[in-house]
Automatic annotation (TrEMBL):
SUPFAM superfamilies: Acyl-CoA N-acyltransferases (Nat) (SSF55729)
Classification via InterPro entries: Acyl_CoA_acyltransferase, GNAT_dom
Short name of any one Pfam family annotated for the protein: Acetyltransf_7
Protein name according to UniProt: GNAT family N-acetyltransferase
N-acetyltransferase domain residues: 2-156
PROSITE patterns per record: GNAT
Length: 158
């Protein structure tokens, strides 16, 4: 069964073995870089299947403070990825299906979650569109690998 769990120290050993295809690294960076982003406001989560770590994401609790395109008290979903050995098994889709309820319980004082996805990353954009996110039709131009679509999911009725 797939689960979203807060990242804990026991996950680290497995986490650092996760990989991406070379063509995918530009979309999220390396795991080493991602781990340096973690702090009290930018919180790490692992995606597990039968207790094995298969993926990862960050929830940025101060996303609206750093992104002008955000209009409400919103979270940011960042660095979402599935290890390349485990891609194509429906894990990303299943994670996104669990996400609204998970965020509603974990972050009841927020109502929305935003993300940005590179315009060249069609697999991820279609995945988000099919699993609850809407394209805001805005483009974010501050990413390291070119323009990104801004997408939003309302997980809680305000
Ligand atoms: C995008 C990503 C998270 C998808 O993870 P995944 O677990 O392989 O995705 P799933 O197996 O749940 O598949 C979801 C859909 O994408 C499609 N898909 C997955 N990989 C694909 C590929 N390489 N090419 C074409 N379609 C693909 C699946 O067919 C499925 O489509 P469906 O809903 O029509 O059945 C994964 O490829 C990844 O980690 N990419 C690199 C990091 C990244 O780009 N993250 C997004 C940052 S915004």
């Amino acid at each position: 069964m797939i689960k979203i769990e807060k990242m804990a120290s026991q996950h680290l050993g497995e986490l650092i073995t996760l990989g991406l295809d070379e063509s995918q690294v530009k979309f999220v960076g390396t795991i080493d870089d991602i781990l340096t982003m973690i702090n009290a406001q930018i919180r790490p989560y692992v995606i597990t299947v039968e207790n094995q770590v298969v993926g990862f994401f960050l929830i940025d609790t101060v996303y609206e403070k750093n992104n002008d395109f955000v209009t409400s008290k919103s979270l940011g979903l960042r660095k979402f990825f599935i290890d390349n050995k485990h891609q194509g098994n429906g894990y990303a889709k299943q994670t996104l299906n669990l996400l609204p309820d998970y965020l509603a319980v974990t972050y009841p004082n927020h109502t929305d979650v935003y993300l940005t996805v590179n315009v060249k990353n069609n697999v991820a954009k279609n995945l988000y569109l099919k699993n609850g996110f809407q394209d805001t039709e805005e483009l974010y131009l501050g990413g390291p690998s070119g323009p990104q679509h801004v997408m939003k999911l309302a997980y809680k009725v305000a």
